[in-house]
Write a structure and sequence with these properties.
The chain is α/β, with parallel strands linked by helices. It contains 13 helices and 19 strands. An eight-stranded mixed sheet has the order 14-13-15-1-16-17-7-18, sandwiched between helices. The protein has a four-stranded antiparallel sheet with strand order 9-10-11-12, with no helix packed on it. Strand 11 (211-214) and strand 12 form a beta hairpin. Helix 5 (147-155) packs parallel to helix 11 and helix 6 packs parallel to helix 12 (395-405). The chain is globular.
Amino acid sequence: MSWLVATAAGCSGYGAPAGAPAGVPTAPSLGSSVSKYISHVVVVIQENRSLENFFAGFPGANAPLYGCAKKQQKQFAARGAQRTSSGCPSGDVVIRLHQITFDGPDLRHDWESSMADWDKGKMDGFYEFGNHTKDEAYAYVVHKQTEPYWAMARQYVLADEMFPTEFGGSFTAHLTLVAGTDDIKLPSEAEVDFPSAAPDDCDSPPGTKSSYITEKPYRVKYYFQGPFPCFDQFNTMAEVLDRAGVSWKFYATKLLDAGFWEPFEAIRYVRYGHDWRSNIIVPQTKILTDPEKGELASVSWVTPSKADSDHPAAHSDLGPSWVASIVNAIGESPYWNTTAIIILWDDWGGWYDNAPPPQLDYRGLGIRVPCLIISPYARQGESHEGYVSHTQYEYGSILRFIEQVFDLPHIGTEANGYTDKRANSLIDSFDFTQSPRPFTPIKTVYPSSRFIHEPPSDEPVDTQ
Protein backbone atom coordinates (compact mmCIF):
# COMPACT_ATOMS: atom_id res chain seq x y z
CA MET A 1 0.00 0.00 0.00
CA SER A 2 2.83 2.41 0.74
CA TRP A 3 4.15 1.96 -2.79
CA LEU A 4 0.68 2.59 -4.20
CA VAL A 5 0.31 5.90 -2.40
CA ALA A 6 3.82 7.03 -3.32
CA THR A 7 3.30 6.20 -6.98
CA ALA A 8 -0.01 7.98 -7.08
CA ALA A 9 1.49 11.15 -5.62
CA GLY A 10 1.90 12.31 -9.20
CA CYS A 11 -1.89 12.64 -9.45
CA SER A 12 -1.88 16.16 -8.12
CA GLY A 13 1.62 17.37 -8.97
CA TYR A 14 3.30 18.29 -12.18
CA GLY A 15 6.86 18.92 -11.11
CA ALA A 16 9.82 17.19 -12.70
CA PRO A 17 10.39 13.63 -11.52
CA ALA A 18 13.64 12.90 -9.77
CA GLY A 19 16.59 11.72 -11.80
CA ALA A 20 16.19 14.07 -14.76
CA PRO A 21 19.47 14.52 -16.64
CA ALA A 22 21.32 17.66 -15.59
CA GLY A 23 23.47 20.09 -17.48
CA VAL A 24 21.21 22.00 -19.86
CA PRO A 25 23.27 23.16 -22.84
CA THR A 26 23.39 26.88 -23.48
CA ALA A 27 20.62 27.68 -25.96
CA PRO A 28 20.93 30.26 -28.70
CA SER A 29 18.84 33.33 -27.99
CA LEU A 30 15.87 34.38 -30.10
CA GLY A 31 17.16 35.90 -33.32
CA SER A 32 20.50 34.07 -33.30
CA SER A 33 21.50 31.65 -36.01
CA VAL A 34 19.73 28.46 -34.99
CA SER A 35 19.39 27.95 -38.75
CA LYS A 36 23.08 27.06 -38.76
CA TYR A 37 21.86 23.72 -37.44
CA ILE A 38 18.13 23.50 -38.25
CA SER A 39 16.55 24.72 -41.48
CA HIS A 40 13.49 22.42 -41.67
CA VAL A 41 10.74 21.96 -39.09
CA VAL A 42 8.06 19.29 -39.50
CA VAL A 43 5.05 19.26 -37.15
CA VAL A 44 3.16 15.94 -37.17
CA ILE A 45 -0.29 16.20 -35.58
CA GLN A 46 -2.13 13.10 -34.39
CA GLU A 47 -5.44 12.69 -32.57
CA ASN A 48 -6.95 12.49 -29.12
CA ARG A 49 -4.51 11.05 -26.62
CA SER A 50 -3.27 12.21 -23.24
CA LEU A 51 0.35 11.72 -22.27
CA GLU A 52 -0.56 8.96 -19.81
CA ASN A 53 -2.77 7.17 -22.31
CA PHE A 54 0.32 6.50 -24.44
CA PHE A 55 3.27 6.84 -22.04
CA ALA A 56 2.10 5.67 -18.60
CA GLY A 57 5.07 4.09 -16.90
CA PHE A 58 7.70 5.60 -19.19
CA PRO A 59 10.97 5.86 -17.21
CA GLY A 60 11.70 9.36 -15.95
CA ALA A 61 8.40 10.82 -17.14
CA ASN A 62 5.65 12.23 -14.94
CA ALA A 63 3.29 9.45 -16.03
CA PRO A 64 2.30 7.13 -13.16
CA LEU A 65 0.26 3.99 -13.65
CA TYR A 66 -2.34 5.19 -11.16
CA GLY A 67 -4.80 8.06 -11.19
CA CYS A 68 -7.08 10.09 -8.93
CA ALA A 69 -10.85 9.82 -9.08
CA LYS A 70 -13.77 11.03 -7.03
CA LYS A 71 -15.25 8.20 -5.00
CA GLN A 72 -18.51 7.90 -6.89
CA GLN A 73 -19.04 4.49 -8.37
CA LYS A 74 -18.80 0.86 -7.27
CA GLN A 75 -17.00 0.11 -10.53
CA PHE A 76 -13.84 1.64 -9.07
CA ALA A 77 -13.50 -1.24 -6.61
CA ALA A 78 -13.37 -3.67 -9.50
CA ARG A 79 -10.16 -2.03 -10.71
CA GLY A 80 -8.43 -2.14 -7.34
CA ALA A 81 -9.20 1.38 -6.15
CA GLN A 82 -7.92 2.28 -2.70
CA ARG A 83 -8.63 5.10 -0.30
CA THR A 84 -5.56 7.21 0.34
CA SER A 85 -4.67 10.03 2.68
CA SER A 86 -2.05 11.50 0.34
CA GLY A 87 -1.42 11.97 -3.34
CA CYS A 88 -5.03 12.67 -4.27
CA PRO A 89 -7.55 15.26 -3.10
CA SER A 90 -9.36 14.45 0.12
CA GLY A 91 -12.17 11.98 -0.46
CA ASP A 92 -10.75 10.71 -3.76
CA VAL A 93 -9.57 7.22 -4.52
CA VAL A 94 -6.41 6.02 -6.23
CA ILE A 95 -7.30 3.90 -9.22
CA ARG A 96 -5.02 1.65 -11.22
CA LEU A 97 -4.88 2.50 -14.93
CA HIS A 98 -5.99 -0.49 -16.98
CA GLN A 99 -4.67 -1.58 -20.35
CA ILE A 100 -6.60 -1.14 -23.57
CA THR A 101 -5.85 -1.58 -27.26
CA PHE A 102 -6.46 0.77 -30.17
CA ASP A 103 -9.93 -0.72 -30.25
CA GLY A 104 -10.73 1.22 -27.07
CA PRO A 105 -13.69 3.59 -26.54
CA ASP A 106 -14.18 7.07 -28.02
CA LEU A 107 -14.60 9.46 -25.08
CA ARG A 108 -16.18 12.89 -24.97
CA HIS A 109 -13.59 15.65 -25.33
CA ASP A 110 -15.17 19.08 -25.63
CA TRP A 111 -15.01 22.18 -23.43
CA GLU A 112 -17.49 20.89 -20.83
CA SER A 113 -15.85 17.49 -20.45
CA SER A 114 -12.40 19.05 -20.15
CA MET A 115 -13.69 21.31 -17.37
CA ALA A 116 -15.07 18.27 -15.55
CA ASP A 117 -11.88 16.23 -16.04
CA TRP A 118 -9.72 19.12 -14.87
CA ASP A 119 -11.94 19.84 -11.83
CA LYS A 120 -10.12 23.08 -10.99
CA GLY A 121 -6.76 21.33 -11.00
CA LYS A 122 -7.73 18.26 -8.99
CA MET A 123 -7.56 16.09 -12.15
CA ASP A 124 -10.11 13.67 -10.72
CA GLY A 125 -13.27 14.14 -12.78
CA PHE A 126 -12.50 11.85 -15.70
CA TYR A 127 -15.20 9.39 -14.65
CA GLU A 128 -18.03 11.83 -15.40
CA PHE A 129 -18.24 11.35 -19.16
CA GLY A 130 -17.64 7.60 -19.42
CA ASN A 131 -19.87 5.90 -21.98
CA HIS A 132 -19.79 2.34 -20.69
CA THR A 133 -18.09 2.13 -17.32
CA LYS A 134 -17.22 4.99 -15.06
CA ASP A 135 -13.49 4.28 -15.10
CA GLU A 136 -12.93 3.78 -18.83
CA ALA A 137 -10.92 7.03 -19.13
CA TYR A 138 -8.37 5.64 -16.63
CA ALA A 139 -6.51 3.61 -19.21
CA TYR A 140 -3.36 3.36 -21.31
CA VAL A 141 -2.77 1.67 -24.65
CA VAL A 142 -0.80 -1.54 -24.28
CA HIS A 143 2.86 -0.78 -24.93
CA LYS A 144 3.19 -3.42 -27.63
CA GLN A 145 0.90 -1.34 -29.86
CA THR A 146 2.63 1.98 -29.15
CA GLU A 147 6.16 0.60 -29.43
CA PRO A 148 7.21 2.86 -32.35
CA TYR A 149 6.37 5.89 -30.17
CA TRP A 150 8.27 4.45 -27.23
CA ALA A 151 11.22 3.70 -29.52
CA MET A 152 11.31 7.36 -30.59
CA ALA A 153 11.10 8.50 -26.97
CA ARG A 154 13.94 6.16 -25.97
CA GLN A 155 16.17 7.61 -28.71
CA TYR A 156 15.18 11.27 -28.77
CA VAL A 157 13.09 13.58 -26.54
CA LEU A 158 9.79 12.95 -24.81
CA ALA A 159 8.36 16.25 -23.55
CA ASP A 160 6.13 15.43 -20.61
CA GLU A 161 4.81 18.98 -20.06
CA MET A 162 3.14 19.86 -23.38
CA PHE A 163 -0.22 21.57 -22.92
CA PRO A 164 -2.72 22.77 -25.53
CA THR A 165 -3.44 26.49 -25.69
CA GLU A 166 -7.07 25.92 -24.77
CA PHE A 167 -9.31 23.40 -23.06
CA GLY A 168 -11.53 21.42 -25.42
CA GLY A 169 -11.26 19.54 -28.67
CA SER A 170 -9.77 19.53 -32.13
CA PHE A 171 -11.16 22.68 -33.77
CA THR A 172 -9.45 25.20 -31.51
CA ALA A 173 -6.39 22.97 -31.13
CA HIS A 174 -5.64 23.08 -34.84
CA LEU A 175 -6.25 26.82 -35.05
CA THR A 176 -3.85 27.52 -32.21
CA LEU A 177 -1.22 25.20 -33.68
CA VAL A 178 -0.90 27.55 -36.66
CA ALA A 179 -1.85 30.87 -35.03
CA GLY A 180 -1.01 30.76 -31.34
CA THR A 181 -4.43 32.27 -30.68
CA ASP A 182 -8.09 31.90 -31.58
CA ASP A 183 -9.31 35.18 -30.12
CA ILE A 184 -12.14 36.58 -32.21
CA LYS A 185 -12.75 39.74 -30.19
CA LEU A 186 -10.34 41.49 -27.90
CA PRO A 187 -9.73 41.37 -25.12
CA SER A 188 -11.98 38.59 -24.01
CA GLU A 189 -13.69 36.33 -26.57
CA ALA A 190 -12.16 33.18 -28.07
CA GLU A 191 -13.37 30.35 -30.27
CA VAL A 192 -14.41 27.16 -28.49
CA ASP A 193 -15.42 23.64 -29.54
CA PHE A 194 -16.73 23.63 -33.13
CA PRO A 195 -19.07 25.52 -35.51
CA SER A 196 -22.69 24.66 -36.20
CA ALA A 197 -22.13 23.06 -39.60
CA ALA A 198 -19.41 21.08 -41.37
CA PRO A 199 -16.84 21.44 -42.80
CA ASP A 200 -16.24 24.04 -40.07
CA ASP A 201 -14.44 26.57 -42.23
CA CYS A 202 -14.76 29.11 -45.06
CA ASP A 203 -16.67 26.52 -47.11
CA SER A 204 -19.37 25.94 -44.51
CA PRO A 205 -22.97 26.72 -45.51
CA PRO A 206 -24.08 30.35 -45.22
CA GLY A 207 -25.40 31.07 -41.76
CA THR A 208 -22.95 28.74 -40.01
CA LYS A 209 -22.05 30.05 -36.57
CA SER A 210 -19.08 29.28 -34.35
CA SER A 211 -19.18 29.14 -30.54
CA TYR A 212 -17.07 31.18 -28.17
CA ILE A 213 -16.11 31.64 -24.53
CA THR A 214 -15.58 34.86 -22.63
CA GLU A 215 -13.09 36.11 -20.10
CA LYS A 216 -15.68 38.38 -18.48
CA PRO A 217 -17.89 36.77 -17.30
CA TYR A 218 -15.24 34.13 -16.71
CA ARG A 219 -15.37 31.09 -18.99
CA VAL A 220 -18.98 31.45 -20.06
CA LYS A 221 -19.70 29.59 -23.29
CA TYR A 222 -22.01 30.95 -26.01
CA TYR A 223 -23.24 28.16 -28.25
CA PHE A 224 -23.33 28.92 -31.99
CA GLN A 225 -23.46 32.67 -31.48
CA GLY A 226 -20.00 33.47 -32.85
CA PRO A 227 -18.82 34.55 -36.30
CA PHE A 228 -18.86 32.54 -39.51
CA PRO A 229 -15.78 30.25 -39.36
CA CYS A 230 -13.73 32.04 -42.03
CA PHE A 231 -11.44 33.99 -39.79
CA ASP A 232 -9.60 37.23 -40.40
CA GLN A 233 -9.74 38.33 -36.75
CA PHE A 234 -6.22 37.02 -36.08
CA ASN A 235 -3.00 36.37 -37.99
CA THR A 236 -1.35 32.99 -38.42
CA MET A 237 2.12 31.68 -39.08
CA ALA A 238 1.23 31.68 -42.81
CA GLU A 239 1.41 35.48 -42.98
CA VAL A 240 4.67 35.53 -41.04
CA LEU A 241 6.32 32.88 -43.22
CA ASP A 242 5.08 34.45 -46.44
CA ARG A 243 6.42 37.89 -45.56
CA ALA A 244 9.82 36.40 -44.76
CA GLY A 245 9.91 34.28 -47.92
CA VAL A 246 10.08 31.02 -45.91
CA SER A 247 8.50 28.06 -47.71
CA TRP A 248 5.75 26.09 -46.00
CA LYS A 249 3.33 23.25 -46.68
CA PHE A 250 0.30 21.83 -44.92
CA TYR A 251 -0.34 18.16 -45.72
CA ALA A 252 -4.04 17.22 -45.57
CA THR A 253 -6.33 14.43 -46.72
CA LYS A 254 -8.08 16.66 -49.26
CA LEU A 255 -8.03 20.23 -50.51
CA LEU A 256 -11.65 21.13 -49.82
CA ASP A 257 -13.81 20.20 -46.83
CA ALA A 258 -11.03 18.63 -44.79
CA GLY A 259 -12.63 20.07 -41.68
CA PHE A 260 -10.77 20.69 -38.43
CA TRP A 261 -7.61 18.98 -39.70
CA GLU A 262 -6.82 21.57 -42.32
CA PRO A 263 -7.20 24.76 -40.27
CA PHE A 264 -6.02 27.06 -43.06
CA GLU A 265 -9.32 26.37 -44.83
CA ALA A 266 -10.83 28.40 -41.98
CA ILE A 267 -8.34 31.26 -42.46
CA ARG A 268 -9.49 33.80 -45.05
CA TYR A 269 -5.92 34.90 -45.88
CA VAL A 270 -5.01 31.38 -47.02
CA ARG A 271 -8.33 30.09 -48.33
CA TYR A 272 -8.73 33.01 -50.74
CA GLY A 273 -5.07 33.81 -51.24
CA HIS A 274 -2.14 32.65 -53.35
CA ASP A 275 -1.13 29.96 -50.82
CA TRP A 276 -4.25 27.88 -51.35
CA ARG A 277 -3.21 26.04 -54.50
CA SER A 278 0.51 25.88 -53.79
CA ASN A 279 0.92 25.24 -50.05
CA ILE A 280 -1.96 22.93 -49.15
CA ILE A 281 -0.67 19.51 -50.20
CA VAL A 282 -2.98 16.56 -50.87
CA PRO A 283 -3.02 13.77 -50.19
CA GLN A 284 -1.15 13.84 -46.91
CA THR A 285 0.85 10.77 -47.90
CA LYS A 286 3.07 12.96 -50.10
CA ILE A 287 5.07 13.70 -46.95
CA LEU A 288 6.48 10.19 -47.40
CA THR A 289 7.85 10.90 -50.88
CA ASP A 290 8.62 14.64 -50.85
CA PRO A 291 11.86 14.25 -48.85
CA GLU A 292 13.45 11.84 -51.32
CA LYS A 293 12.39 14.13 -54.17
CA GLY A 294 14.07 17.11 -52.52
CA GLU A 295 10.71 18.82 -52.02
CA LEU A 296 10.52 19.24 -48.26
CA ALA A 297 9.46 22.78 -47.34
CA SER A 298 11.17 24.79 -44.62
CA VAL A 299 8.08 24.39 -42.40
CA SER A 300 5.56 21.57 -42.71
CA TRP A 301 2.44 20.56 -40.84
CA VAL A 302 1.19 17.00 -41.37
CA THR A 303 -2.27 15.66 -40.55
CA PRO A 304 -3.42 12.03 -40.99
CA SER A 305 -6.36 10.15 -42.39
CA LYS A 306 -8.79 8.84 -39.81
CA ALA A 307 -7.39 5.31 -40.01
CA ASP A 308 -3.86 6.58 -39.37
CA SER A 309 -4.74 9.19 -36.74
CA ASP A 310 -4.70 7.25 -33.42
CA HIS A 311 -8.29 8.45 -32.97
CA PRO A 312 -10.12 5.89 -30.81
CA ALA A 313 -13.15 5.92 -33.14
CA ALA A 314 -10.95 4.61 -35.96
CA HIS A 315 -10.33 1.31 -34.10
CA SER A 316 -7.01 1.15 -35.92
CA ASP A 317 -3.41 0.50 -34.88
CA LEU A 318 -1.94 2.12 -38.01
CA GLY A 319 -1.02 5.44 -36.33
CA PRO A 320 2.37 4.52 -34.82
CA SER A 321 3.55 3.05 -38.13
CA TRP A 322 2.26 6.08 -40.06
CA VAL A 323 4.20 8.48 -37.86
CA ALA A 324 7.31 6.29 -37.85
CA SER A 325 7.15 6.15 -41.66
CA ILE A 326 7.24 9.96 -41.77
CA VAL A 327 10.25 10.00 -39.45
CA ASN A 328 11.96 7.30 -41.51
CA ALA A 329 11.28 9.12 -44.80
CA ILE A 330 13.00 12.24 -43.46
CA GLY A 331 15.67 10.35 -41.54
CA GLU A 332 16.75 8.42 -44.60
CA SER A 333 16.82 11.52 -46.82
CA PRO A 334 19.44 14.28 -47.22
CA TYR A 335 17.23 16.48 -44.98
CA TRP A 336 17.97 14.55 -41.79
CA ASN A 337 20.91 16.63 -40.59
CA THR A 338 18.95 19.88 -40.83
CA THR A 339 15.50 18.84 -39.60
CA ALA A 340 13.54 18.96 -36.37
CA ILE A 341 10.42 16.78 -36.23
CA ILE A 342 7.81 17.58 -33.58
CA ILE A 343 5.09 14.99 -33.00
CA LEU A 344 2.10 15.74 -30.84
CA TRP A 345 -1.57 14.95 -30.37
CA ASP A 346 -4.16 17.68 -30.86
CA ASP A 347 -6.10 17.11 -27.62
CA TRP A 348 -6.31 14.70 -24.71
CA GLY A 349 -9.30 12.80 -26.12
CA GLY A 350 -10.98 12.47 -22.73
CA TRP A 351 -8.27 10.14 -21.37
CA TYR A 352 -6.95 10.43 -17.84
CA ASP A 353 -3.92 12.59 -17.20
CA ASN A 354 -2.47 13.50 -13.83
CA ALA A 355 -0.78 16.85 -14.59
CA PRO A 356 -2.79 19.97 -13.69
CA PRO A 357 -2.40 22.37 -16.62
CA PRO A 358 -1.14 25.82 -15.60
CA GLN A 359 -3.89 28.39 -16.09
CA LEU A 360 -2.33 31.22 -18.08
CA ASP A 361 -5.52 32.84 -19.34
CA TYR A 362 -9.24 32.22 -19.69
CA ARG A 363 -8.65 29.74 -22.55
CA GLY A 364 -6.33 27.41 -20.67
CA LEU A 365 -3.81 25.81 -20.81
CA GLY A 366 -5.64 22.59 -21.65
CA ILE A 367 -5.09 18.99 -20.56
CA ARG A 368 -1.63 17.59 -21.33
CA VAL A 369 -0.81 15.69 -24.52
CA PRO A 370 2.25 13.67 -25.60
CA CYS A 371 5.05 15.38 -27.51
CA LEU A 372 8.09 13.82 -29.16
CA ILE A 373 10.99 15.91 -30.48
CA ILE A 374 13.21 14.18 -33.02
CA SER A 375 16.37 15.59 -34.55
CA PRO A 376 20.05 14.77 -34.99
CA TYR A 377 20.52 17.54 -32.39
CA ALA A 378 17.87 16.29 -29.95
CA ARG A 379 19.22 16.29 -26.40
CA GLN A 380 20.47 13.03 -25.04
CA GLY A 381 20.01 11.66 -21.57
CA GLU A 382 22.39 9.57 -19.57
CA SER A 383 24.35 6.94 -21.51
CA HIS A 384 23.40 8.72 -24.75
CA GLU A 385 19.79 7.55 -24.50
CA GLY A 386 16.53 9.45 -24.82
CA TYR A 387 15.83 12.55 -22.79
CA VAL A 388 12.67 13.48 -20.92
CA SER A 389 12.06 17.22 -20.96
CA HIS A 390 10.14 18.63 -18.00
CA THR A 391 9.99 22.17 -19.41
CA GLN A 392 6.50 23.62 -19.49
CA TYR A 393 5.56 23.78 -23.17
CA GLU A 394 2.38 24.87 -24.90
CA TYR A 395 1.37 24.96 -28.55
CA GLY A 396 2.88 28.44 -28.79
CA SER A 397 6.24 26.82 -27.93
CA ILE A 398 6.26 25.16 -31.36
CA LEU A 399 5.53 28.45 -33.08
CA ARG A 400 8.20 30.24 -31.07
CA PHE A 401 10.71 27.58 -32.03
CA ILE A 402 9.85 28.07 -35.71
CA GLU A 403 10.32 31.82 -35.25
CA GLN A 404 13.66 31.19 -33.60
CA VAL A 405 14.89 28.86 -36.35
CA PHE A 406 14.06 31.30 -39.15
CA ASP A 407 14.67 34.54 -37.22
CA LEU A 408 11.04 35.63 -37.60
CA PRO A 409 8.99 38.18 -35.70
CA HIS A 410 6.27 37.00 -33.34
CA ILE A 411 2.85 36.50 -34.92
CA GLY A 412 1.35 39.17 -32.67
CA THR A 413 1.45 40.68 -29.22
CA GLU A 414 0.50 39.10 -25.94
CA ALA A 415 -1.95 41.97 -25.39
CA ASN A 416 -3.77 40.80 -28.51
CA GLY A 417 -3.98 37.21 -27.29
CA TYR A 418 -1.01 35.63 -29.09
CA THR A 419 0.92 33.03 -27.09
CA ASP A 420 4.10 32.50 -29.10
CA LYS A 421 6.04 35.22 -27.27
CA ARG A 422 5.11 34.07 -23.76
CA ALA A 423 5.71 30.37 -24.49
CA ASN A 424 8.94 28.58 -23.64
CA SER A 425 10.71 27.66 -26.87
CA LEU A 426 11.46 24.01 -27.60
CA ILE A 427 15.09 25.05 -27.97
CA ASP A 428 16.13 23.55 -24.62
CA SER A 429 15.31 20.09 -25.99
CA PHE A 430 18.22 20.45 -28.40
CA ASP A 431 21.98 20.31 -27.91
CA PHE A 432 23.85 22.08 -30.69
CA THR A 433 27.20 21.31 -29.09
CA GLN A 434 26.92 17.66 -30.11
CA SER A 435 27.71 16.25 -33.54
CA PRO A 436 24.56 15.40 -35.52
CA ARG A 437 23.46 11.89 -34.73
CA PRO A 438 23.24 9.38 -37.58
CA PHE A 439 19.69 8.19 -38.19
CA THR A 440 18.54 4.74 -37.16
CA PRO A 441 15.23 3.72 -38.75
CA ILE A 442 12.26 3.22 -36.44
CA LYS A 443 10.79 -0.28 -36.67
CA THR A 444 7.17 -0.39 -37.79
CA VAL A 445 4.40 -2.97 -37.90
CA TYR A 446 3.15 -1.69 -41.26
CA PRO A 447 5.59 -0.67 -44.05
CA SER A 448 5.62 2.83 -45.50
CA SER A 449 4.32 1.38 -48.78
CA ARG A 450 1.06 0.69 -46.94
CA PHE A 451 0.58 4.43 -46.52
CA ILE A 452 2.09 5.61 -49.82
CA HIS A 453 -0.51 3.54 -51.66
CA GLU A 454 -3.32 4.32 -49.24
CA PRO A 455 -6.53 5.31 -51.09
CA PRO A 456 -7.68 8.92 -50.54
CA SER A 457 -10.11 9.29 -47.65
CA ASP A 458 -13.19 11.50 -47.42
CA GLU A 459 -13.96 10.40 -43.88
CA PRO A 460 -13.64 13.15 -41.25
CA VAL A 461 -10.96 12.36 -38.71
CA ASP A 462 -13.04 13.67 -35.81
CA THR A 463 -16.28 15.52 -35.18
CA GLN A 464 -15.31 16.98 -31.82
